[in-house]
Amino acid sequence: MIITIDGHAGSGKSLAAINLAKELNVRLLNTGAMYRAAAIALKLAGINIDAKHRDVATIERIVQGFHFEMPGEETVLNGVNVTAIIGSEEAGRAASRVGTFPEVRTRLKAEQRRLAAGQSMICEGRDQGTAVFPEAPLKFFFTASVEVRTRRRIDQLLEMQVAFDPDDIARQVIARDRQDEERAIDPLKRAPDAIVIDTSAMSPEEVLQRMLAAVAQCPSPA
pTM of the prediction? Predict the structure, then answer.
């Protein structure tokens, strides 16, 4: 069975997906990591992803050669483990940018469906329950206040000992929401049958228990 988890950046969906996959002993598909990897690969190939008029033909040719494997919590693109280089704030912003490219989304959605074919899997991202696996029997949509998500990102940067401007982090959170929600193709939105979880005042354990309760009530348990 496919279980989808979509939601805003910083809403806690990645940790929730990891915890649920471990609890149910099923595979995890972190599609955000795939977009980060795609963005980095395109930049390394010399593509200016911020160009007003991007080279669609070249981008399409490059992404058609993408082959992903997602063992455990790692991301492998074309045989190269890129897990260590896709966690930066820059990679996150770049992922949000290339996520607006139809040629990238089309290829990555095909890869996501390939990876999930015949599997019981937790699929986490921003369009899993709406565009990639709309037939999934159980869908979640995560959200949290901008203030909470900003604080979480600041805590991450402090732990990483990375310099930052708190006001700039808040602006980035808001800007990324806008880009994700307003993109022309597969915008971030709640699937009509998705269970909404606002994690603003919830601990990871509380979130997990809420999800497990929904899994227990699902007619097709994983």
Answer: 0.88
CA distance 214 to 212: 5
Q: Which helix (H) or strand (E) holds 95?
A: helix 89-98
The predicted model gives 88-112 an average pLDDT of: 91
pLDDT of residue 222: 43
Q: Is 145 exposed, middle or buried (0-12, 13-18, 19+ CB in 10 A)?
A: middle
Amino acid at 27: R
Strand pairing report for 2-7 and 121-125:
parallel
Tokens of 103: 């040629």
Distance of CA 171 to the CA centre of its chain: 20
Q: Looking at the chain, how many residues does it have?
A: 222
| H or E stretch at 142 | strand 138-143
Q: 173: which 2 tokens?
A: 């959170």
Instruction: Read off the amino acid at residue 125.
Output: G
CA 60 to each of CA 33, 47, 174, 191, 192: distance values in angstroms, whole numbers, following the listed order: 19, 11, 29, 28, 32
3-state helix, strand, coil in the chain (%, to 5): 50, 15, 35
Share of the chain above pLDDT 90, in %: 78
pLDDT of residue 220: 64
pLDDT digits (tens, 9 = 90+) for 5-57: 999 989 999 999 999 999 999 999 999 999 999 999 999 999 999 998 999 99
Contact 222, 26 (CB under 8 A): yes
